[in-house]
Amino acid sequence: MSMLRHRKKSPYYGVEIIKNLDSFPKVNKEDFIEKSRIGGTVTVIAYILILWIIVHEVRYYFESHVDFKFMPDKDYDAKLRLNLDLTVAMPCSSIGADILDSTNQNMLKFGKLDMMDTWFEMTSEQRLNFDDIRRVNSYLREEFHAINDLLWKSGHSITLRKLPQREIIDSNPPDACRVYGSLVLNKVAGNLHITAGKSLHLPEGHVHISAFVSQAEYNFSHRIHHLSFGDSGVGIIHPLDGEEKIADINMALYQYFVEIVPTDVETFLSKAKTYQYSVKDSLRIINHDKGSHGVPGIFFKYDISALKVVVTQSHEPLLKFFVRLSSTLSGVFVSAGILKDCILFITKKLERTLYPEQKKNGVSVEKVPEEVYSL
Ligand SMILES: *[C@@H]1O[C@H](CO)[C@@H](O)[C@H](O)[C@H]1NC(C)=O
């Protein structure tokens, strides 16, 4: 702005003295008016541009950013909560769930998972709900990079509707078992498994008593309604929700290798210490004759990442915003000034070559009204 004021005043300061020294040809009045019109147009454009920039910058300032930082997780003593809800295609009396972690502690120390007899075949309403969860979850997984900022900022989880209750009770005896609940685990690697028979904890370790369940009854087809660690919520996607596996062989061993990443979320709307996980799964057919040994069942082998992710939401500092805004705006002013000067210079040149005779009868500067000087 100051630059423009200067230009406005300069012809009037000491003009009388300077005028006498002026040996440059004068331009006529029409030229000046024409040129100031150019200046005016440039000014208007510059102001529109400035307004547009201000609007965008302010909007950008109010938008927050989500930042991710990785750092070693030193919170060794923290507990890890596991939330599980899954249905296995075997009656509850035939299966048992257990956990063994790398400190050799077992289920008894961590809590208890509830078991409820049910039917593996879902009602149509349940099927719709389950397919919804599956679809939404796979969409979220695929589009995660496009929407993750939004998920974090929204501060709430994608809480999908719980599986609706079965309305019509099947006349057949229950053929499946729903295993659900939360366990509080040590923050070390471990192995949660659901196998045939009940497990028995002995001082020497734990054994699975599966002798009473014949192998022909084994069916480890399962559906995972939910698996998460820590507090659910805050923009975290649980990759295993909506997983369904149908086994056509009795001796199936399903393994999920779960890598848990501690995640601290500090957004404007929520503050939580939680966990994300990634998972790989495999299916192995147990066949002792062919050297594929093991116990059929569903195994979740989990391990905890040594690095945690810290998710923060931040604003640009106000000062930085002002500095950037003012430098951008002054840049626009300077460029507009240069642009105007260039246009004036070019038009002047053009006029001189087109109407060379007008050079002689120039109009002196002081007669031109003030406003024509303004940019
Ligand atoms: C296990 O149960 C599912 C669902 O009822 C069925 O489709 C599958 O064929 C069964 N598998 C075995 C090995 O019986």
Question: How do the helices and strands line up, and which of them pair or pack?
Answer:
Elements: H1 2-9, H2 15-21, H3 29-62, E1 65-72, E2 79-88, E3 95-101, H4 107-110, E4 114-118, H5 124-142, H6 144-154, E5 176-186, E6 190-196, E7 198-202, E8 205-209, E9 222-229, E10 243-245, E11 252-266, E12 271-285, E13 297-304, E14 307-314, H7 318-354
Parallel strand pairs: 11-13, 11-14
Antiparallel strand pairs: 1-14, 2-5, 2-9, 3-6, 4-5, 6-13, 7-8, 9-10, 11-12
Helix pairs in contact: 3-7
This protein binds 2-acetamido-2-deoxy-beta-D-glucopyranose.
Report on this model:
The chain is an alpha+beta fold. The chain contains 7 helices and 14 strands. The strands form 3 sheets. Strands 1, 3, 6, 11, 12, 13 and 14 form a 7-stranded mixed sheet that branches. Strand 7 and strand 8 form a beta hairpin. The longest helix is centred in the C-terminal third of the chain and has 37 residues. The protein is elongated, with a radius of gyration of 38 Å. Keywords: Membrane, Transmembrane, Transmembrane helix. Its main location: endoplasmic reticulum.
Stretches where pLDDT falls below 50 for ≥5 residues? 1-5, 363-368
Q: How many E-type strands?
A: 14
Query: Alpha-carbon distance between the termini?
Result: 10 Å
Ligand species: 2-acetamido-2-deoxy-beta-D-glucopyranose
Overall geometric form:
elongated
What fraction, in percent, of the residue positions are helical? 25-40%
Per DSSP, what share of the residues sits in E-state strands of 2 or more residues? 25-35%
**DSSP summary: helix tally:** 7
Mean pLDDT: 80
Domain Endoplasmic reticulum vesicle transporter N-terminal: 18-107
Main location: endoplasmic reticulum
Domain Endoplasmic reticulum vesicle transporter C-terminal: 170-338
InterPro entries: Erv (IPR045888), Erv_C (IPR012936), Erv_N (IPR039542)
